[in-house]
Specification:
By secondary structure, the protein is mainly alpha-helical. It folds into 5 domains: 1-185, Serine Threonine Protein Phosphatase 5, Tetratricopeptide repeat, CATH 1.25.40; 196-274, Alpha Horseshoe (Serine Threonine Protein Phosphatase 5, Tetratricopeptide repeat); 365-434, Alpha Horseshoe (Serine Threonine Protein Phosphatase 5, Tetratricopeptide repeat); 452-535; 554-701, Alpha-Beta Plaits (2-Layer Sandwich). The protein has helices at residues 13-38, 44-72, 77-93, 97-113, 117-134, 137-153, 157-173, 177-193, 197-213, 217-233, 240-253, 257-272, 277-293, 297-314, 317-333, 337-353, 357-373, 377-394, 397-413, 417-434, 437-486, 490-544, 554-566, 581-588, 590-608, 631-650, 677-693; strands at 571-578, 614-618, 621-627, 662-668, 699-701. It has a 5-stranded mixed β-sheet, with helices on both faces. The longest helix is centred in the last third of the chain and has 55 residues, at 490-544. The radius of gyration is 34 Å and the shape is flat. Its EC number is 2.7.7.65. Its cofactor is Mg(2+). TPR repeats lie at residues 161-194, 241-274.
Length: 705
């Protein structure tokens, strides 16, 4: 939610010195300004708010002092520029965006007059950071383009990377995720070329955040882990709160709440140790999102309120919108709708002003949920439509899936069963794309790679130690031989031999011990690999089976049929649909409806045997594949299957006067006009609907033209 683009590139060493002086002077001024307000407060949230409130008068005194110094230094443009640059860094350090913007704009104008391109780049990039904070992404994009144009005049890979970083942030906030990913990849390539480790970590994190928004979670996880490792290797580690928060957000999307919570707590602990109120507010806001998603509304309300207090004190308009959205969600979850609605409307307005697709869609969906609960269905439907239109263009799949889920509930309450079914299918398609079999396998492979890497590092360390011991033993033997050759006395010779023998014995003993450690590590690695293979098999079964009935899921079933048809072999399919299934759910409840599906599929598998695969096609529709079976034989099997299912379902039916039956459509590939899987399934579907049209509880064969 909060961006990580907050680090200036430093192409010249004097920029570091100026910034260091600015931070030291600003810290001294701020301490004198907030000492009374902060004492005896120890809570980081209260200290951050006190810091923000005390910064403004300090900034005013700084501006006044700079103006006096400026007038006194007329005729000394170089000193005037240094003074203005010092004030700009101080105002930025004091989190006074308006005063900082005034200073950087003035410094940019002065640099243009003096034709100092480097100073122009510094000022433009600093203004871009400020635009990131206040949410003006149109101007942020324009500033990034300006920096790119200047780097054409004076080549500067570091500033070019910074420009791509700003452009990527603006594109992501506008929902242009593919373009944002391109920009961040270019920034990463430049920073890798420059061997800028801190910049690489920043670009990896930004690219990972973009991949997360695209729903490409495996790539995002690898990128964020790589960024964290770079941060941890820095001395001292920097921006750990950002790295842990990004990983927490990813684990939240991957439905791993324990990992998400652990990383959020690490991020919160790291943020509290940094003297940066906006960093603390960023983690608080993101943690509130997770808590709202987990249903922990009371704590989410506390954290969102704390983040709002800090961001409001700092004037961070972009993050205020997120804080209000999460505060509104928490209040709504606690049942305080009258308090939640104003917060959500303010978040919606702020999101529209800043053109933040994610904030706008989130506020619309939360308002739609409230209206759905209060039966304002027309208004709720309109809001969901707006959210879907926004998210379709932005390709934000997690939010888009949530929007289709809300729409399904609305269409159900409106009595539009067709619309509800369409919305439910769209929701299931998006969820399958987000967390599919391929993603599960790649995540398992990634975890295996990390586990293997740790053991490889341990084995490498032991191998290096063994090599050193072997070299040392060789050296000792050479020394012993040389001593023996030069020895003129038998007694001295025997003494030296005894001494070298003891040394060699100890070294060989150590070497044997190290070899045993290597063997133990190898066996441990084999055990881990066996465990990972077993987990991979379990994950594959979860990814290919319907969780309710245990039969094949739709994707796996269609893959089986495609492989069979590709070998140019005949196949018949039975499309089985449970009659009046919605009425069964409405009369007897969804749990009984699930029991009907389970008993029916069990009867199918018992009747057909293990040689004929059964899969869930969608909802209450199931697909049976009869490989190398003629059309007549397929019809016989379908009729006997219908009767077997009727007997099994009658045994659990609490309403014998209303039997539970199925309708079956039968189609054979060799009798289809076009011998493709799509046409075959369409023929079976049409035959099934003909069975329903002729009174249900029957089979119907597709007739060739």
């Amino acid at each position: 939610m909060h961006d990580t683009t907050l680090a200036l590139p430093a192409p010249r060493r004097e920029t570091h010195r100026v910034r260091l002086r600015a931070w030291l002077i600003g810290l001294g001024m701020l301490c004198s300004g907030v000492s009374e307000a902060a004492d005896p407060i120890s809570d980081p949230i209260a200290v951050s708010v006190a810091y923000a409130r005390a910064a403004h008068p300090v900034a005013m005194r700084l501006q006044h002092a700079t103006e006096i110094g400026w007038r006194g230094l007329q005729g000394f443009p170089a000193i005037q520029r240094s003074l203005l640059q010092l004030e700009a860094h101080l105002q930025t350090a004091l989190s006074e965006p308006q005063d900082a913007e005034r200073c950087w704009q003035r410094l940019y104008t002065l640099a243009v007059q003096q034709n100092d391109v480097r100073m122009q780049l510094t000022a433009l990039h600093a203004r871009g950071e400020l635009r990131t904070l206040d949410g003006n992404y149109e101007e942020l994009h324009a500033l990034g383009e300006q920096i790119l144009q200047l780097t054409e005049r004076v080549p500067s890979p570091s500033y070019k990377a910074a420009a791509y970083n700003l452009l990527g942030t603006a594109a992501r906030r506008h929902g242009q995720l593919d373009r944002a990913a391109d920009y961040h990849e270019q920034a990463l390539a430049l920073r890798s070329m420059l061997q800028d480790r801190s910049g690489q970590a920043e670009s990896l994190a930004n690219l990972g955040t973009t991949r997360r928004d695209q729903g490409r979670f495996v790539e995002a996880l690898a990128l964020q882990h790589e960024a964290l490792q770079i941060r941890l290797r820095q001395s001292p580690p920097e921006h750990l709160d950002i790295a842990y928060r990004n990983l927490a957000l990813l684990y939240r999307e991957l439905d791993d709440p324990s990992q998400a919570r652990m990383h959020f707590e690490k991020a919160l602990d790291a943020a509290r140790k940094r003297p940066m109120p906006n960093a603390l507010a960023s983690v608080l806001g993101s943690y509130a999102v997770f808590l709202n998603d987990s249903g922990e509304y009371a704590r989410a309300q506390v954290l969102a309120g704390q983040a709002l207090s800090v961001d409001a004190s700092l004037g961070n308009r972009t993050y205020i919108a997120l804080d209000r959205l999460q505060l509104g969600r928490a209040l709504s979850g606690l049942g305080h709708r009258s308090e939640a609605i104003p917060q959500l409307y303010m978040a919606l307005q702020a999101g529209r002003e800043a053109a933040q697709t994610e904030i706008i869609a989130g506020a619309l969906l939360e308002l739609a949920r409230i209206e759905l609960d209060t039966h304002a269905l027309t208004s709720a439907n309109a809001r969901v439509e707006q959210a879907i239109n926004l998210l379709d263009g932005a390709r934000m799949m997690p939010l888009l899936a949530d929007a289709w889920f809300v729409r399904e509930r609305i269409r159900t309450q409106l009595g539009d069963n067709a619309g509800a079914l369409h919305a439910l299918r769209r929701y299931m398609q998006l969820r399958e794309r987000l967390i599919g079999a391929r993603s599960v396998q790649r995540i398992a492979a990634l975890k295996s790679a990390y586990q293997r890497q740790r053991y490889d590092e341990r084995i490498g360390e032991l191998t290096r130690n063994n090599t050193e011991n072997l070299l040392r033993a060789t050296q000792h033997r050479r020394t012993r031989d040389l001593t023996l050759a030069l020895s003129g006395s038998l007694i001295l010779l025997l003494g030296l031999i005894w001494h070298r023998y003891r040394v060699a014995y100890r070294l060989h003993h150590e070497l044997a011990h190290k070899h045993r450690e290597v063997e133990a590590a190898r066996r441990a690695l084999e055990d881990v690999n066996g465990t990972l293979r077993e987990q991979s098999r379990k994950l594959y079964r979860l990814a290919t089976r319907d969780p309710l009935t245990g039969v094949c899921n739709r994707r796996h079933m269609l893959q089986k049929l495609e492989r069979h048809i590709a070998r140019e072999r005949d196949v018949s399919v039975l499309l089985v649909d449970f009659d009046h299934f919605k009425q069964i759910n409405d009369r007897l409840g969804h749990l009984f409806g699930d029991q009907v599906l389970c008993v029916g599929t069990h009867a199918m598998r018992e009747h057909l045997g293990s040689g004929q695969p059964v899969g869930r096609f969608g909802g209450e529709e199931f697909l049976v594949a009869l490989f190398d079976v003629s059309a007549d034989k397929a019809a016989e099997i379908a009729e006997s299957l219908r009767k077997a299912m009727a007997r099994a379902l009658a045994a659990i039916n609490p309403e014998p006067q209303t039997p539970i039956t199925v309708s079956i459509g039968v189609a054979t590939l060799s009798q289809c006009e076009t011998r493709t899987l799509k046409y075959l399934l369409g023929a079976a579907d049409r035959a099934m609907y003909q069975a329903k049209a002729h009174g249900r509880n029957r089979i119907f064969r597709h007739q060739a033209l």
